[in-house]
Amino acid sequence: MDNFSVKCNEIDDVALLYLYGFLDAHTAPQLETELQKLVERNQYNIIVNFKELNYISSAGLGVFMGFVETIRSNNGDIKMCCMSPKIYRVFDLLGFPSLYDIVDEEEKAVQLFRNPKAKNNVNKDE
pTM above 0.85? Predict the structure, then answer.
């Protein structure tokens, strides 16, 4: 089983979380910790990059649902990008594309924070 890690970077007022490996019930607390740190710093504009994520379970999906209300009530959001078709299918199956902006490139996610009216989600229907 692959390990999981999450790295955080910032561009101006946007936090970028990079996920690596397997996100499941055993590793979800690491993601929770990183999101909690952002909330405690009043950082509510968050992009999650899934490019290097190989697997996500329902526990991993639940982490996002656990934070989105707090983040949105503080005028922020969670944008998602760079999902492989396999990871996207899991999100799609559970209806996440109707709840979150999911785009194919990190720069597009950043632009959604800069210009919210330019919503042109690029979802993977593969």
Answer: yes
